[in-house]
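Why does residue order matter? Because the sequence determines the fold. Keep that principle in mind as you read this record.
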Amino acid sequence: MTTPDSGTAPVAAPPDPMWPEPFEVRQVARETGDTFTLTLVPKVGSQPHPFAPGQFNMLYVFGVGEVPISISGDPDRPELLVHTIRAVGATTRALQKLKRGDQVGVRGPFGTRWPVDQAHGQDIVLVAGGIGLAPIRPVVYHVLRHRALYGRVVLLYGARTPHDILYARELRDWRGRFDAEVEVTVDRATIEWQGGVGVVTKLIQRSPFDPSSAVAMICGPEVMIRFASLALEKRGMTTASIHVSMERNMKCAVGLCGHCQLGPHFVCKDGPVFRYERIEPLFGLREV
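Structure:
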C-alpha cells in the first residue's frame, strides 16, 4: 500500500471472504426434480468473484438463512458465479424460489482446491456420483480449456436413474470432443435409457488411463468414494494420487461450530478436498 502523495494509486485489498457481498440472480435453471443451478452476477460496481476448482461459497438468503454450496461454474469466467443445489431444507428451497434480479449474499470462497496445477503432464481421472458432479465440473472446464497440459482425461459419472443425470447436454458435448473419455451409468434404467447400468465404480476397471501416471479426483456419497478409491488402488494407483471432496454438513466455514468434523479434521477449514491418504483410516470407523 502506498501513501496518498507517493504518486501511485493504492492497491485495493482483496475482499474479505467473511463479509457477505451482494450478488444478483441471473438465472435459476432446473436440472432434475429436486436440483437446480443458480447463476449469480456481481451487483453494479462490485468485483467478480474468482475461485479455484473445488472451493465453496456460503450463500445467504436474507431473512431465511445461510448454506454452504460448492462452486460448479467455470473458474476462467469469475464474472458468472454458478452453484448447483439440491433443495433439501429451508434455505435451499428459498434459493430455488428466487427470480431473476433477486439478491443473494455471498461469502467466500472457502476451502481447499482440486490439484489441477500439480497434475500437469499426468492423466486425469474424475469419478462423480449424483450431485457430486457439481464440484467436479470446474475441473472439467479447466482441464478441457488447457487440454495440452494434461494426458488422458477420463470422466466417470453415475446417477440413480436417467432422470437424475446432471448437465446431460454438457456430458454429450464433452464426449463429442474426442479428446476425453466420458462414461455415464445409472443404478436403475428406464425403458428409453440406452446407456450403461450399474455402479460407477465398475467403470474404473476398464477405463483408459495409466495408473502409474494419473491423478484421480472423486466426489459423491461417502460409500462411493470408498469403493472408487479401492478400485483405483486395485488398478495400481497410490492413495497419494487420489483426491476426494467431502460434502459434509458445513455451517460456519471456519471450523468453529464442529458440524462438519471428520475425525481430527473440519471439512470446511481443512477441506473439502483432501488427499485420500490423509483420511482413508476414517472411512472404516462407524462413529465418524
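The chain is about 15% helix and 30% strand.
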